[in-house]
Structure prediction request, 213 residues.
Amino acid sequence: NGLKVSMFGSYVRPMLPDFDQKAAEAIRISKILGARVIRIWAGNKEPHEADDELWSFVASRLHEFALRAEDEGITLAMEMHSGTLCATPEGALRIIEQTNSPNLKINFQVVDPKSPDLERTIAMIGRYVVNVHAQNYRRSPLDPEKMELCLLEEGVVDYDKVLSLLVEHGFNRFVEVEFLKGEHASEEAMLDSLRKDAAYLRKLVERYTTATT
Prediction:
């Protein structure tokens, strides 16, 4: 059917008491799926909350995991997400440098949709990005202080700019729709959003694929 598994979205993180078992399971599942990338999580605190001991612990566990994954031809991609050491580009860079594993990369997503800061963030971590989670939000017309899920093309995050910046760093991997407008309303609304978001991303990907060939 032409479908590929772009990434296995695991929830493996170094703080788990059964980390070694979960890491091994993630590698096994990825091999079954034919996925060459495993999404992982860098700890359970943001950079400003973490002490040196936590940084060292996370780096050590991820180094071990990365070595095991590398033996199977699999790349680990830390998700940029709040509540982790990858909540900021500075944090993501620090854990990559401390881990010192060539197959430890980044699953990029905008952590704060109110303030995307695309140029600075991608300038810092773009060369490590191997996958993108795409989701978008806009300010609610009823309450401007609240952000509501919307179509990728209609929100605060400019995905045209995201791809144009990533391509400068050699990015040529998958861009995934993560959350959908209307996903909690009805199946029909969710599928309609999926079709529109997929068409939008296809248009962008074709544009930048053509530009780099």
Q: What stands out?
A: Residues 187-211 form the longest helix (25 residues). Residues 8-179 form a domain with the TIM Barrel fold (CATH 3.20.20.150). The mean pLDDT is 94. DSSP finds six helices and eight strands in the chain.
